[in-house]
Design goal:
The chain is 32% helix and 22% strand. It has 287 residues and is α/β, with parallel strands linked by helices. The chain is globular, with a radius of gyration of 20 Å.
Length: 287
């Protein structure tokens, strides 16, 4: 094969590879070393309540987004709980599981004490709570709030709003709190911020590609205190007209906060449109 033919084949291969990637990230091939200017994202996926099966998918997708864009690297704050006992488990197996849960809670405390202590937060540019649940044993909850208020960046995904119910400053920072959900449904979200980097790739409405999703009904959420990005204009189950926030952003002191209630299902995480929604939100909090 002549030299120019080899050159043409390499060019076509590169073009096809770029076309297979989401357009927002095609310029940066995955796996390349992060530039020195890359931001550091702390990805927290520990849980003290329900653990979503999509957590591992979320960890992989967020790491791929950072690598593809070359804009941030990911450090995990994660611990895997023991599996729940089977329905026919014996008393001894239940007792063993109880001991394993205690050990798991200790591991969570160690992980969070290392990553989220006041002195540790300065290592990161953004902290992301992704499908976290329950009363996480943060070493210093007030330090996290103060860090964001002083100019830090915070991202919350799905059950980040089902986290730290007992610590109201966190709920106030996030801008909303999980109240309940019902069966998964098909939705048509209204794009309320067509110029925002998290939503400008959507049309006027987005139906999640026709996928089912678990939709949260929220409390302690007021539209006027945030910049709404995606919302429903009717109740997801009754169909009654009204505002139901799905995604928003907000300044918080000198810092920034982005939240999306989507992300329950693995299939949603695999959607390029959802990945671009999340990447745009991360880009916004990182300015």
């Amino acid at each position: 094969m002549t030299g120019w033919l080899r050159w043409l084949r390499r060019l076509l291969s590169a073009a096809l590879l770029g076309a297979a990637l989401p357009s927002a990230f095609a310029a940066e091939p995955p796996g390349r070393p992060a530039p020195a200017s890359a931001k550091r994202l702390l990805l927290v996926t520990t849980t003290m309540g329900w653990r979503h099966s999509s957590i591992e998918t979320a960890e992989r997708v967020i790491a791929q987004l950072g690598a593809a864009a070359g804009s941030f690297t990911v450090e995990l704050a994660a611990a895997t709980p023991p599996p729940e006992p089977r329905a026919d488990a014996t008393a001894a197996q239940h007792a063993q599981h109880a001991n394993e849960r205690v050990a798991y809670a200790d591991r969570v405390r160690v992980v969070l004490a290392d990553k989220l202590a006041a002195a540790s937060l300065s290592r990161y540019d953004v902290v992301a709570f992704v499908n976290t649940t329950g009363e996480l044993p943060l070493p210093d909850p007030e330090a996290l709030i103060a860090w964001v208020r002083a100019g830090g960046a915070f991202v919350g995904v799905h059950s980040a709003s089902d986290t730290l119910h007992g610590f109201r400053p966190y709920i106030d920072m996030l801008g909303g709190e999980f109240h309940h959900h019902r069966d998964q449904v098909h939705i048509e979200a209204v794009n309320l911020a067509p110029e925002h980097p998290a939503t400008r790739h959507f049309g006027a409405r987005w139906n999640l590609g026709g996928l089912l999703e678990e939709i949260y009904l929220l409390q302690n959420h007021r539209r006027e205190t945030v910049q709404p990005l995606l919302a429903l204009d009717r109740h997801p189950h009754s169909g009654e007209p009204g505002y139901h926030g799905l995604s928003w952003c907000k300044p918080f002191g000198r810092g920034r906060v982005f939240y999306t209630a989507l992300g329950h299902n693995e299939s949603v995480w695999e959607l390029p449109a959802f990945q671009q929604h999340l990447a745009g939100g991360i880009a916004w909090v990182l300015r």
